[in-house]
């Protein structure tokens, strides 16, 4: 017998709450976990499906019903049920009731400034203290705050001598997630609380919410404090938190006041009216506040005067603020600390050097803002790869801002957080995101407004914003990008704006008369028009060498480039017979633009091949057995295990799985004779590399395929290939690959290999079974100049692939 039973025979006047009270009078308070009250189809009586917290209570009610159980004048019967209402009831490590919850900031070792408090709060500590849940009522709405382990910086239990009360102080990295209970009003028996009871409200009845307190005081808080009576027992925090300590010294609470100058996006602070600070100083102060290095109440007028460049050398200010960021603990008296730092600078008689480093061409400093449902965080300036817009407005870099919308733990926010599946209404999170995009962000004397977003930013819930300056607005920048008036589709309009924001390398200018416009290759078959040349163009050999030099290819000319040129986008492949610098097709033109700079996003080169979930799902659908994938996965894990002890395997893995500058230092250490299991730094870095690849394997099913490559797709401009044929030539690696393969082998970095025979070719992204093809690779002498590309034919009844910004696995 299980924990769930059906009790029948209740009168029509009964409710789920009355059934709960009746049963708990028999089994004890808190023993009923869930109730569903329903009416019999053939009468006026009701039955209740009841889930108890234990099997013993369910058996007890059935035994009472067998010996006549009465509800008033109604005779009740009971029987066991096969399934529970809630399959996996929540269990908590510990719970506290009637607690007073304080949100605020610690302003000294002994004082806590309270911004908002709530009494009669229940606290549930999850298993392993991974999550803490706070439940309370506020203005007739039931709220739940969920605080994750990752958002807790430190826990300190204060037991002031001579006091019966205790204070559990929890220092926070970020705010808790806020949920409000959605009370159905539809009258549906399956939702109506009159007919349903849950001890723990089901997840689908909790709706995400933003800060509901006056002036967003939860968002302005950097800590929360639980005021505990002396009686309740607490969980063992030492077992789960490295930063836990206890204190018996003085500790007191005092009333605090909001300090944020923006009451919607908090915490954002600014100087008093008589102090005028530059934007970069204000941004840095806010970053220090939001990261917990400063407390809001301590930022008084004296502090702002100490960071005023009109009074203090700006190099001293910047160096002191950077040093403040690296302190191990929060600075409760920043004015005193700054005065001490300035005295040291003046004694040395040499102003400190700026921490900013000069950047290589193609890199820029950009500031970034992350917005959560309750808080806002400032970061930077950080080094970013430049794009077309930033290069055109180099004197306005400080007016550009990258904005991301993330959850409280800085994880990705999902669509269900904005609009629940079981409701047509939008949550408070949706309104918050919309208000930021519509109204912008004010930081100091700059007001940032929405500009555009790239395709990668769209996946990450990010966007670019711009603060108008010198008569230049976000609308002016969009007008400079190109003419989008012919685009009436909103999604396409946004995508075309994003073309200019892809991370790219600026190469050379190409005048209009140096560009040839060539027709698309199209075939009509069965009344359907197929484009063989969608997104593919040509580049002359001589011009390709110049572009490769600008891209830093060190004497090697790639066979294909992924480009942006004006309103054109796609791939251009080297054509030795072309006399024009660029030959572009109509399918590559997305909008009209006067820009003549050629920007390169990527170019053909050695790239390792990995299976992913999309490709595995399609291959499995097409008949590949699961055992094949398990075998490949097992082999990939063995290869990663071997790099920790075998120097040769470590070199091979770094060269094949992760080619590029990030692993060059490790490769050089291995080539110098250092052993992976004896040199500490090398061992640590290889373990990190292995852990990263295993994480990708576990979360994304990225299985390394030694016999494969990720390549760009190109078109056979010679019309040599027949339908179903491809030409594949790849460059050799510096080391032999794992295992013996017909594709692999050879000596030297410049050796090339031509593949012949059957090959499996897949698109990335891979969404349709037709995106995976078995084709025949052939050797065509006219295409020997094409390396690290898959060359597709322009013959046949339909195109094999579109080439626009696509990656091909082979």
From TrEMBL:
One of its GO terms (biological process) is siRNA processing. GO terms for cellular component: nuclear RNA-directed RNA polymerase complex. InterPro entries: PH_RDR1/2-like, RBD_domain_sf, RDRP, RDRP_core, RDRP_helical, RRM_dom, RRM_RDR1/2-like. One of its GO terms (molecular function) is RNA-directed RNA polymerase activity. Keywords: Nucleotidyltransferase, RNA-binding, RNA-directed RNA polymerase, RNA-mediated gene silencing, Transferase. Residues 3-88 form the RRM domain. It is an enzyme of class 2 (transferase). Pfam families: PH_RDR2, RdRP, RdRP_helical, RRM_RdRP1_2. It catalyses: RNA(n) + a ribonucleoside 5'-triphosphate = RNA(n+1) + diphosphate. Its EC number is 2.7.7.48. It comes from the Eukaryota. Belongs to the RdRP family. Probably involved in the RNA silencing pathway and required for the generation of small interfering RNAs (siRNAs). This is RNA-dependent RNA polymerase. It comes from Ziziphus jujuba var. spinosa.
